[in-house]
Amino acid sequence: xxxxxxxxxxxxxxxxxxxxxxxxxxxGQEATGISASDGSTIRTRKRKGLVTEVFMDEENFxxxxxxxxxxHNRYSTAGSKSVVDAQPIMANYKLGQISIAHNGNLIxxxxxxxxxxxxxxxxxxxxxxxxxxxxxxxxxxxTLQERIIEALEDIKGAYCFVIQSRxxxxxxxxxxxxxxxxxxxxxxxGYIVASETCAFDLVGADFVRDVRPGEMLIFEKGKxxxxxxxxxxxxxxxxxxxxxxxxPDSVIDxxxxxxxxxxxxxxxxxxxxxxxDIVLPxxxxxxxxxxxxxxxxxxxxxxxxVRNHYVGRTFIxxxxxxxxxxxxxxxxxxxxxxxxxxxxxxxDSLVRGxxxxxxxxxxxxxxxxxxxxxxxxxxxxxxxxxxxDTPSYEELISANMSDEEIREYIGADSxxxxxxxxxxxxxxxxxxYSLVSFDGEYFxx
Length: 445
Ligand code: AMP
Fold this sequence. Notes:
Blueprint: E1 3-8, H1 13-23, E2 31-37, E3 42-48, H2 51-54, H3 59-63, E4 68-74, E5 89-93, E6 96-106, H4 109-118, H5 129-138, H6 144-153, E7 157-164, E8 168-173, E9 182-185, E10 191-194, H7 198-203, E11 206-210, E12 215-220, E13 226-229, H8 239-245, E14 251-252, E15 255-256, H9 257-271, E16 278-281, H10 287-297, E17 305-307, H11 320-330, E18 331-333, H12 335-338, E19 342-347, H13 354-365, E20 370-375, H14 397-400, H15 403-410, E21 414-417, H16 420-427, H17 436-439
Parallel strand pairs: 16-19, 19-20, 20-21
Antiparallel strand pairs: 1-4, 1-10, 2-3, 2-4, 5-6, 6-7, 7-8, 8-12, 9-10, 9-11, 12-13, 14-15, 17-18
Bound molecules: adenosine monophosphate.
């Protein structure tokens, strides 16, 4: 999972991209980067670290000059964690300089990579995104636009690409619209595309619309953005964006993330009532769902767990030992709230079970009489191949244990999940969603 941004025809575009990336820091904390074009040269700065760390020095923005910029926050789902795997990826090819930022996961990356290597291509990174650069460079079409379109024909997966040449910018969303991408406009002209609308709010852009699944937007100076519908398909936006990934203030495909989470909590309460004294959220991921649960059940909501905001997301370090430590560093109970109470504790999802196990122990240690663990999403039984970091069956606790076994493992008095039907109801029946993690229906293959 990652964040992408593209800023077009805006003074100091790299600085606007920087703020947009800052607003979308939650989508990836491993590395960040910005490429900017002043019309004659594209320049890139990228490095491991948080947006504010990497671009701490004002000098970066003097270097990244120009009115067009693209940017990326990395959360590795493909490739390694080395700095060469930071994005945007820049290259020189026959038609000049090009830079690409990508959010998603290309499922046929290995076949394409192998084919390209057999034909003599030299790869500089482990990233699936580099495939696209090679395909564009090898295309014999006369324009970049045609080359991108041809290259995309070879690529399968869930993706949003933001691509820039020295003078143009392209934004593309895959045909199912699995990953979010929105278009915004600045009051005095200029455009922005970003993975989440929370980026627009920070930089003062007005939301225009979502980029349509299968759509390519082309930005060129002196023109309104041109839209080409490359593919037609039934949209399948990712349910996990609403459950966990996106920021609550973002609106994805017309639906506010916070409201959807409230709804999931409400349905969780309808499906899984329990006698209890307080409802606690796992901060911050379970807050909206816990509020929805509390409102529906009438059980008082309490902020009984304090989160230390100076620790990154627990998942972000993909090493098990680190993850365990980070949960403890991150969350601490308010004993005065919890002692002697029957507690309902709500989180958005159960992946490996690490967080829940530690939280249940933490609550019991703080004196909770009963701990009822409730998840505002269904059991994650299948790895997502479309860009969410739930990599293998072995690591997914619900793929390996029954609910009762998990309850015992995490030490809770009861354990329940939102049903798939309940999730669908919460999101609305106006469209189908990508539910691969829950139902294993891999619709892109
Ligand atoms: P676990 O401890 O492995 O069961 O992970 C569950 C916790 O990780 C929950 O608090 C979720 O909010 C969070 N989470 C769920 N999915 C992801 C993901 N793809 N990346 C990072 N964190 C996640």
